[in-house]
């Protein structure tokens, strides 16, 4: 996987706190078994190299979850927003994730309390566009119309 230069620089910076070691292939397979699907490849590859970092990426704060945390948050979200797969927090009460019900798997932001699809905000349709949105701070620009 090719990690964007800006993202790689962020991962290597001293501004990033690392919470855990990178995920193993076995941990990813266990997570994917629990949620019933394979993670989007860029996210999957990221989890294999990252170690659950957190910090400001450009204009946005992000705290990536470990595979264990993804499983826990996914389970919590399914009653109110079935198909939402959270993988990080913005530190302000919202979770970054994607809509697994869609073939495109768009990246969205949902409140962790009062979570429901009508509160979702579209961030991007691809991993690279998601990173660009974080970098620019364009997190609250548009509502997401879930299909």
CATH superfamily: SMI1/KNR4-like
CATH class: Alpha Beta
- Unreliable sequence segments: none
SS class: alpha+beta
Please give the largest β-sheet.
Answer: 7 strands, antiparallel
Residue share in helices?
25-40%
Please describe what this structure looks like:
By secondary structure, this protein is an alpha+beta fold. The protein has one domain (5-136): SMI1/KNR4-like (3-Layer(aba) Sandwich). The chain has five helices and seven strands. It has helices at 5-12, 25-35, 41-50, 67-77, 127-136; strands spanning 17-18, 53-57, 60-64, 84-89, 94-99, 107-111, 121-124. A hairpin with a 4-residue loop joins strand 4 (84-89) and strand 5. The model has no long low-confidence stretch (mean pLDDT 88).
In short:
This protein is an alpha+beta fold and 147 residues long. The chain is 34% helix and 22% strand.
Give keywords.
single chain; globular; 34% helix; seven-stranded antiparallel sheet; SMI1/KNR4-like; 147 residues; alpha+beta; 7 strands
Topology:
Layout: H1 5-12, E1 17-18, H2 25-35, H3 41-50, E2 53-57, E3 60-64, H4 67-77, E4 84-89, E5 94-99, E6 107-111, E7 121-124, H5 127-136
Antiparallel strand pairs: 1-2, 2-3, 3-4, 4-5, 5-6, 6-7
Helix pairs in contact: 2-4
